[in-house]
């Protein structure tokens, strides 16, 4: 009876202590989370532009543009993101005068990595639109670009949203690898805390929760967006 | 109005059009008939360069549409086209389908374009469908909306590529009625069709194509009742 009460108290104390450690870590972790969100937003905005432009390259008649697009996609998809990050941060300065700070290198790495996968999403999305839509637009007198913008892309993007969101989620989580080049994003912030207090369980649990919050917010936003586009 | 000289079109090794020569006068209604694979759709699609001709020239009101120096987008405004599969824009309402091009390309204001769009919908019998999305229309209604969309650019020539071939039989009549009234108003039309009754009634001239050639052409009475060529006789005996 007595021992039972004692263990229970010890357990309660442990839980309270753990919670305290998590709460104490929160300000630093939130700073890291902010950096993760910032890198993600900037990188994915750039990646969308890459995806759209090279996606259109990949469906043109022009062999050179198609070649550029294919080479880029194959090169990026064929190599690990960790190698890409290290190459941009350590490899490029070693061979050229170009020296990037970690933040810029990180954004470039995530952008070109996500961009390659988005090229494929855009290509497939545009190709999924019936050829007759382009013909109908062109026969009315619209140019190729106008038809793309007014008729093809609005339909294609709607179909691409689930795949784009999926890639965004992958890329958000990929930013955690940027810790290897010393960017104080969410994962790195966590590492620096448990390096001092040795409470890896509590800290990494909180890091996981905060990643989940970012990803789940995006998921909810995507569901809302899909519903809204469905009405139109 | 349209003058086609020595038009040729090959897809790789396959020669689909071999030396086509056609002239169409203003307000003339020309129906193109023939077995499938005879090149009649390709012929029509060459006229607005949806297919790039491999040889010859196509003069639309004096301008060669195959000349790279001519602005193809400008020239296409004058050539309305109606497709077998309608190709309405599913993300726009019926009215937006009609008004987008005149607004963006012909400098019409929203109000002018809407007014024109509603007049055209009235004309094709879809006045109550302006704010409906194409997915909620029947096949015949879709095709009439597509005709209205093409007319909104105020073209002087209309091209029809088997406009009733994808329709249920009971929908065909409404679409043909709209085309008849267009013909009566004096629209210059080239129609690829399998509707022999329609061709006989509406066409000023019927062209029978087979194997990439014009085998025979003439006014509908002569061609349907008294075909001169063996191939025309064979074809008509199968379809009439």
Task: Explain the layout of strands and helices.
The complex is a heterodimer of chains A (232) and B (240).
Chain A: H1 2-57, H2 63-77, H3 81-95, H4 102-127, H5 131-140, H6 144-174, H7 186-197, H8 200-231
Chain B: E1 2-11, E2 14-24, E3 29-33, H1 40-47, E4 55-60, E5 63-64, H2 72-77, E6 79-82, H3 94-105, H4 110-123, H5 139-151, E7 157-161, H6 169-184, E8 188-192, H7 196-202, E9 205-210, E10 213-218, H8 220-225, H9 230-239
Parallel strand pairs in B: 3-8, 3-9, 6-7, 7-8
Antiparallel strand pairs in B: 1-2, 1-4, 4-5, 9-10
Helix pairs in contact in B: 3-4, 3-5, 4-5, 5-6
Description:
The complex is a heterodimer of chains A (232) and B (240). Chain A has 232 residues and is mainly α. Chain A has a single domain, classed as MetI-like (MetI-like fold). Helices cover 85% and strands 0% of the residues of chain A. Chain A is built from 8 helices and no strands. Chain A has helices at 2-57, 63-77, 81-95, 102-127, 131-140, 144-174, 186-197, 200-231. In chain A, helix 4 packs across helix 6 (144-174) and helix 7 packs antiparallel against helix 8 (200-231). Chain A is flat. The relative contact order of chain A is 0.14. In chain B, helix 3 (94-105) packs parallel to helix 5 (139-151) and helix 4 (110-123) crosses helix 5 (139-151). Chain B has a single domain (2-89, 154-237), classed as Rossmann fold (3-Layer(aba) Sandwich), CATH 3.40.50. The two termini of chain B are 31 Å apart. Chain B has 240 residues and is an alpha/beta fold. Chain B has helices at residues 40-47, 72-77, 94-105, 110-123, 139-151, 169-184, 196-202, 220-225, 230-239, and strands spanning 2-11, 14-24, 29-33, 55-60, 63-64, 79-82, 157-161, 188-192, 205-210, 213-218. Helices cover 38% and strands 25% of the residues of chain B. In chain B, the strands form 2 sheets. A 6-stranded mixed β-sheet of chain B has the order 6-7-8-3-9-10, sandwiched between helices. A 4-stranded antiparallel β-sheet of chain B has the order 2-1-4-5, covered by helices on one side. Classes of the chains: A mainly alpha (232), B alpha/beta (240). The interface between A and B is medium-sized, with 19 and 24 residues.
